[in-house]
Write a structure and sequence with these properties.
By secondary structure, the protein is mainly α. It has one domain. About 90% of the residues lie in helices and about 0% in strands. It has 3 helices and no strands. The radius of gyration is 28 Å and the shape is rod-shaped. The termini are far apart. The relative contact order is 0.08. This is Exopolyphosphatase.
């Protein structure tokens, strides 16, 4: 009788370990997919912001020529494009406010 109870307990323990292992595998797989999506999203955003910096330089030349305002706008575009990830938001916000002041 004790051997039968022991066998059932061992079977339940093995089933529990398998369920935990399956859950851990699925969680790791979901985290990996999320990481890939995050990287692809960041690459898309970085590309769009780089294109915006190029357009901002063209706007600087077209709207202001070689004057100080044009140089400032071009410098802000350069700073936004070269900013590290942590400082990118501030640099992009400064560029946005400078672009908002351009008279169409």
């Amino acid at each position: 009788m004790i051997t039968w109870v022991t066998a059932v307990l061992i079977a339940l323990l093995v089933a529990a370990v398998l369920l935990v292992a399956l859950w851990a595998y699925q969680t790791a797989n979901r985290l990996d997919r999320l990481h890939v999506r995050y990287d692809l999203s960041w690459q898309a955003l970085d590309g769009a912001l780089a294109r915006r910096a190029v357009v901002a330089r063209a706007v600087a030349v077209d709207a202001y020529g070689v004057g100080p305002d044009g140089k400032r706008l071009a410098a802000l575009a350069d700073a936004a494009e070269r900013a590290p990830r942590g400082a990118r938001e501030v640099a992009e916000n400064e560029l946005s406010s400078a672009l908002a002041r351009v008279d169409p």
